[in-house]
Amino acid sequence: MSGIATTAIIEINRTANRYESSIVLHADNKYIDVKSILGLTLTLIRDDVYRLDVHGPDETEARKGMKEIFEKHDLAVRFEV
């Protein structure tokens, strides 16, 4: 997969924005706020296992929601501990 569909980026961004927790994507030595649609557009461009850092009051729900949306779009994701 060379690029990620615009609909996937929008859905990932909207899902992240439902949560109060901080959600940070690690990719190529970059740290991207998943709530930033521009950051996602510039980062989700290749087939990879994406790492997410989730911290905050609703992090359990945020992890579950982010896992579901990444999987929906056939994107591999793992969570930092």
TrEMBL record:
Signal peptide coordinates: none
Annotated TM spans: none
Top-rank taxon, per record: Bacteria
Pfam families recorded: PTS-HPr
Boundaries of every HPr domain copy: 3-71
Protein name: HPr family phosphocarrier protein
Organism, scientific name: Cohnella luojiensis
